[in-house]
Amino acid sequence: MAAAAAASAWRCLSRARPAPCRPRAELPWVPRRGHRLSPADDEMYQRTRISLLQHEASPAMYIDSYNSRGFVINGNRVFGPCALLPNSMVQWNVGSHQDITEDSFSLFWMLEPRIEIVVVGTGNKIERLHPQVLQAMRKRGIAVEVQDTPNACATFNFLCHEGRVTGAALIPPPGHSSLTHLGPSAA
Questions:
Q1: Which residues on adjacent β-strands are paired with residue 83?
Q2: Residues facing 167 on adjacent strands
Q3: Which residues pair with 154 in a beta bridge?
Q4: How far apart are CA 27 and CA 153, in angstroms?
Q5: Range list of β-strands (E), 30-150
Q6: pLDDT tens profile 107-161
Q7: CB contact at 8 A, 78 and 90
Q8: Which has the closest alpha carbon to 153: 129, 175, 136, 178?
Q9: pLDDT tens digit string along 83-95?
Q10: Which one of 27, 54, 108, 120 counts the least CB within 10 Å of its CB?
């Protein structure tokens, strides 16, 4: 009896047509291995050790405040005109917007990674720069945004907050103008 049932089942199976299978692209998951791995076999379960040789992400530069004597950048006081680079600040040897030349901007195009935009603060009001200076920067692929110093500080902070590779060339505004808490914690 058992043999007859087995023979009947075998006949049914041999006459059965295989179910249509979906194309491989429609499968939600395609197994890469044909057997189950134990935690000792799979790299997913093993520990990985990383040695950090150098910190890549440095804190962004932010202008905290400014006055007629200079700027406070990331808590550091800078007197007089300054140039801000992605990871450093230097005093900038210009007295006014008329002293800005192609040579005074040369430090911005010598850097790697290349600076995308330089924000120039020219004091209390927007002053025109020499067309040759702007053309030299444009020729090197660096955009220049000329603004009064208060707006230039805000624009620089905004661009740094966006993660842009930004530089700034700032001349302190003369007089008694000052602003404190310009950084990202002010909002």
A1: 90, 169
A2: 118
A3: none
A4: 55
A5: 63-67, 70-73, 76-79, 82-85, 88-91, 117-121, 143-147
A6: 888 887 889 999 999 999 999 999 999 999 999 999 999 999 999 999 999 999 9
A7: no
A8: 178
A9: 998 888 888 888 8
A10: 54
